[in-house]
Amino acid sequence: MAEAALAETAAALEALRLDSQPRDLVPVLPALRPVVPGLRPGSIVSLNGQGAGSLAMALVAGVSRHGGESEAGGWCAVVGMPEFGVVAAAGMGAEPERLLLVDDPGERWPDAVAALIEAVDLVLLRPPERPGTAAVRRLTALARKHGCVLTVAEHDWPGTALRLHLADTEWTGLGSGHGRLQGRRARLIAERRGAPESTWIWLPAPDGTVTPYEPAATPYEPATPYEPTGRPTLEVVA
Fold it and tell me: Where do the segments described as Disordered lie (predicted)?
């Protein structure tokens, strides 16, 4: 028991030592930076609600394009998301050759994630089940030790440092029962310990990229007076 307690204390001290060392932020796409200047190495990021899949692709695009040494491109792993859109992520700026895809990690998914955490800059994970306490502690400690950003989709994860979701989304391109979806305007909300921050973005823009969006003020227009149309008014003749 004493040896186990000593080992646990040593691991905690090592984690504190690593946390005290300055590390560069893991980069994100420029459109996200007003509320997410970068991702803290070793931190936990949560993606939930509408647009979680698109946000996941945007984070992967930012890291694989701008991350790594000298910002030459970082490595990302996507675990448990077989529907992850590689083509759409590439349209946002991702480098497909820097993506590792594990569609079905199976029952031993914590072991697969643990191995990837040691090798990549960001792991995007959708656990197949509610994560247990042991898995959460193990993977959180490994992410902190190796400086990997662990991004968890659709599940709560204790110790999450940043929560991202979309609100007030609106797709463009559809007319009155016809047309094609072209782009989506949305408000990106970043929640930390303080007050939430938000910024408007295209996710995606009509060309498939992620860009800032500035809502234009709609000028006030008075209502048009009613003017009857169609058949003429009948007159009563005495």
Answer: 217-238
